[in-house]
């Protein structure tokens, strides 16, 4: 009788251990999917996946962690959109103060700013493409149009210490 009881106990324990293992693997898979959305700045998908994860597993440490990261990314994305809008408005008024403030210090960027100070931007129409995000960087294209010719610039931003910085602003060839 004792043997049968031990065998049943071992079988039940083995079954429970295996079910916990598959659940843990599922959580790790979900976490990697969350990270994928996070690193690609797919904030809507991340929010939906977080809700699904919360419904399935409850408030796990991953849910709490990614909810905080989601809020920070949403704030950072909004800040970049406002920065791009402000720089565009200032350029149309021939002002470079915000661009200078957010431009990283480097020889190429300094030379670019010096060239920009010589240009009368009031003659140009300025267009900015939709920003694409990847990890801690963002990129877009700026077009300066005079009517007869258009100049394109690749702009790359980096998010560091809760602040956006222009790390590249170079003309496309």
Number of helices: 5
Give the percentage of residues in beta strands. 15-25%
The major beta sheet can be summarized as: 5 strands, antiparallel
Rounded mean pLDDT is 86
Query: What structural class do helix, strand and pairing data support?
Result: alpha+beta
Kindly state the percentage of residues in helix: 55-70%
Taking the alpha carbons of the first and last residues, their distance comes to 84 Å
Low confidence ranges: 17-22
Basic shape:
rod-shaped
Q: Please trace the helix and strand order, writing H or E for each element.
A: HHHHHEEEEE
In total, how many beta strands? Answer: 5
Main attributes of the structure:
21% strand, 173 residues, five-stranded antiparallel sheet, alpha+beta, single chain, 5 helices
């Amino acid at each position: 009788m004792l043997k049968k009881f031990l065998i049943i106990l071992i079988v039940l324990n083995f079954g429970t251990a295996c079910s916990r293992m598959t659940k843990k693997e599922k959580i790790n898979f979900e976490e990697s999917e969350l990270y994928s959305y996070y690193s690609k700045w797919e904030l809507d998908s991340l929010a939906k996946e977080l809700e699904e994860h919360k419904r399935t597993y409850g408030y796990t440490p991953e849910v709490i962690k990614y909810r905080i990261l989601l809020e920070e990314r949403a704030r950072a994305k909004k800040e970049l959109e406002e920065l791009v809008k402000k720089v565009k408005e200032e350029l149309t008024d021939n002002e470079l103060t915000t661009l200078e403030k957010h431009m990283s210090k480097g020889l190429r960027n300094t030379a670019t700013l010096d060239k920009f100070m010589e240009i009368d931007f009031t003659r140009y129409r300025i267009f900015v493409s939709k920003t694409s995000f990847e990890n801690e960087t963002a990129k877009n294209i700026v077009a300066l149009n005079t009517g007869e010719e258009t100049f394109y610039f690749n702009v790359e931003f980096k998010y560091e210490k809760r602040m956006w910085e222009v790390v590249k602003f170079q003309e496309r060839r």
